[in-house]
Design goal:
With 92 residues, this protein is mostly beta strands. It has strands at residues 2-4, 11-18, 21-30, 33-38, 42-46, 65-70, 86-91.
Length: 92
């Protein structure tokens, strides 16, 4: 398991290497919810606590999956707690 570093801001794009692959991730707030996109694989997946974000994207050839984990409970992620309370994790 690998933690993807995020900042507590409403919208951001980061590039990380996970499982030997370069992943360009965008996390953005739309309305009251947080959304996750992985360039070339998934677009605007709603973020929920401990929910796999790529569960139905295996056909794109990306190995592994991402999910948000609430380190202080079981709430869905909010931008103001990214990188602290809510961690974006990658697992193969």
């Amino acid at each position: 398991m690998q933690i993807v570093p995020l900042d507590p801001i409403p919208s951001q794009t980061v590039s990380v290497t996970v499982g030997g692959q370069v992943a360009r991730i965008t996390v953005r707030t739309i309305g009251v919810s947080l959304y996750f996109s992985l360039e070339g694989v998934a677009l605007n997946r709603i973020c929920r606590d401990r929910q796999r974000l790529l569960v139905d994207s295996q056909y794109h050839g990306f190995v592994g999956d991402f999910s948000f984990v609430d380190t202080k409970g079981r709430d869905d992620p909010q931008y103001w707690g990214l990188g602290d309370r809510w961690q974006l994790v990658y697992g193969e």
